[in-house]
Structure formats: structure tokens, C-alpha cells
Amino acid sequence: PVLRLLEAQLQDQRREHEEEMEALRNQVDLMQEELEKQQQAFLQTLQLSPEAQVEFGLQQEITRLTNENLDLKELLERLEKNEKKLKKQLKIYMKKVQDFEASQTMVAVERRPHERSMQVAVQRKEKDFQGMLEYYKEDEPLLIRNLIT
Questions:
Q1: Which of 16, 63, 117, 142 is the most exposed place for a label (fewest CB within 10 A)?
Q2: Residue 98 · residue 146 · CB < 8 Å
Q3: 85 close to 129: Cβ distance less than 8 angstroms
Q4: Dmax of the chain from CA atoms?
């Protein structure tokens, strides 16, 4: 059984390695094709007049920047979709936390009569605090509830 397991793992690793090698070969082939295209373009550019070389270079740069912009737009769209998904998840989790806090508050309220008989007076030093708390207006009830509890 152990030998068969090891053989199966070895075959899996060999298959993964072969797939990876095939992917790398394809990538090398694509890079070679791209290099050949660039070399041909470079040779054609050398045969052009200086003005035509500048214009060709500008066209190449415009094409490159256009492609880069398209890639960035795709990335931006993916990030915006991900942001929306994460915001939805955050709202769901915030609701769960609020529900949990509400249930904990109810449990704490039920325990208070027992705790009141055991309370001890604690002296506190008065301190001056300066600062600012930033929050959204719709979060004010939650903030006040959390400060109270």
C-alpha cells in the first residue's frame, strides 16, 4: 500500500512537471515569435528615413500605451467588482456582529440583578482627554450602544 501510494505521488509529480514544462515551452515559443516580430520591425525601421523612424517609434509607443491602458482598465474593473463583493460581505458580517452584540446585551441585562449585589465602588482619576472621533452619522446609534455597554 505504501509503495503504491508513493508511486501514485511520483506519477502525479511527473505529470505536473510535464504540464509545467509544456506550458514553459509554449511560453518560450511565444516569446521567440515576439522577438522575431520585433527584430523584423527594427530592421524595417532602420531602412526608413530619420523622420519616418521617429513617426514609427511614436506609433509603436502609442500602441503600447493603448494596450497598457486597456490592461489597466480591465484591472480596475476587476478591482471594482471585488470591492463591491467585499462591501456586501462586510455589510453581512456587520449585521451578524450587531445581532450578536444585541444577543450579548440581552444576556448581560438578564445577569445584572445578580451582579448589582456584588458591585464595588471604584474611584477613578479624572483625566482631560483631547481628540476627535470620526464616524458616519448612520453609525451613531451603534456607537452610542457600544459606548454604553
A1: 117
A2: no
A3: no
A4: 98
Q: 1 by DSSP, 3-state: which?
A: coil
- DSSP of 2-55, one letter per residue? HHHHHHHHHHHHHHHHHHHHHHHHHHHHHHHHHHHHHHHHHHHHHHS-HHHHHH
Distance CA 38, CA 75 (A): 27
Q: What is the pTM of this model?
A: 0.40
User: What is the pLDDT confidence band of residue 147, given thresholds at 50, 70 and 90?
Assistant: confident
Band of the pLDDT at 132, cuts 50, 70, 90? low
Instruction: For residue range 21-66, list pLDDT tens digits in order.
Output: 999 999 999 999 999 998 998 888 888 888 888 888 899 899 999 9
Interatomic CA distance for residues 133 and 105, integer angstroms: 24
Count of CB atoms within 10 A of residue 25's CB? 10
Count other C-beta atoms under 10 Å from residue 101's C-beta: 14
Place of cell 525601421: 45
Q: What is the chain's percent helix, strand, coil content, to nearest 5?
A: 85, 0, 15
